[in-house]
Amino acid sequence: MQLPKYSIGVGDRFAHQGAAQLHAFIQAQAAGVRIAPVWNKSHREHTIVGSRPEDVRAEANAATGALGWTTPYFVDADHIGLAQVERFAPASDFFTIDVADQIGQRAAEDNVAAFVDKHARYVGALDIPGIATPLRIDRQTIEHVAAQFLSACQEAAKVYAKIVQCKGNDDFVTEVSMDETAQPQTPVELLFILAALANLGIPAQTVAPRFTGRFNKGVDYVGDVAQFAKEFQDDLAVLAFAVDQFGLPSNLKLSVHSGSDKFSIYGPIRDAMRRFDAGIHLKTAGTTWLEEIIGLAAAGGDGLAVAKEIYRQAFARREELCGPYASVIDVDSAKLPSPDEVDRWDETTFTSALRHDQSCPAYNTHLRQLLHVGYKVAAELGDRYLDALEKHAETVGQNVTENLYTRHIRPLLLD
User: Fold this and answer.
1) Is 54 exposed, middle or buried (0-12, 13-18, 19+ CB in 10 A)?
2) Per-residue pLDDT tens digits for 74-111
3) Which of 75, 150, 371, 386 has the smallest set of CB atoms within 10 Å of its CB?
4) Phi, psi of 16 (to 5 degrees)
5) What pTM, to 2 d.p., does this model score?
């Protein structure tokens, strides 16, 4: 199974926006670019919402069937480890193997030594097409990478083997994720990570490194855009080199996680892809959930009331909700409006604060991030929330489609 050149992961916390999301891909196809939709949902999200991987498959099949989608689409077992494989395998054909927790756990010394010996031919000044200056590599560099990342790659191999065992074949897409860690991986580190994956027989079609800067949930990139642009271009050059050197799949591409709303780096990503004729996998995940809240608020009446109730509860439980996402959010409680203030807001005030429009003075990144991680509150509202989504499906769906197409697909792949 081969992942097309362009793919976008579209998480849908409550499985109501499959068709609305697919409409954005249909618009993109009409504009001349084919993108594979990848419906993704993590073990954590399933646990919080009370859903199953089979529900994601059912949503994807229903949306594609209803809208006559005939090109590839996928269901991603998102950020799984060994313990989750059996649960996800039957319904999934894309597996994001998350080994960030194993980074820094040193592999056996004989494994490290063997890795260094195997790749000693790269010691010296390594010229990689597309990178302006040669990479300076010595044996200590390779040993450092092996010490930091070889154990994580070995864990990925165990997970991959378990997936093959459960599915009875290897006809699926494999992604290896190392993004949820404190330090970004350099292009040199990425090169030898890819070497390790190839050595271990993992046919990764996409890899998600940790890039420089902050990739907070649902808000724009925080960091040096020029530095990111150089790093991203160098990483693309490394991927092309690794495919040639290590025999990895020819369609290997970078995956940008927490990619929701990183508008300031979409231009550099687009330019780099065009320079290298490269693909991309972008995960926009939680953006759909935020567009549901915006749609409900815009509908007014009971829809706005539900949005306000979710904010009130999320505000009261902000420490609980933010804790699991501490590495990917920056919420300053002092800059959050009080629930009593929000209760006085009309539709326009609420949507202006939440919608990601940086030209709008009312836009509040802290409120947006809090609600991004506040989907647990909506899950606990149960039928009240789901009934509101169904009642206001048209308004919500319009927001979901427009956000995905206008703010993500168009600037990344069309402009």
Assistant:
1) middle
2) 999 999 999 999 999 999 999 999 999 999 999 999 99
3) 386
4) -115, -5
5) 0.96
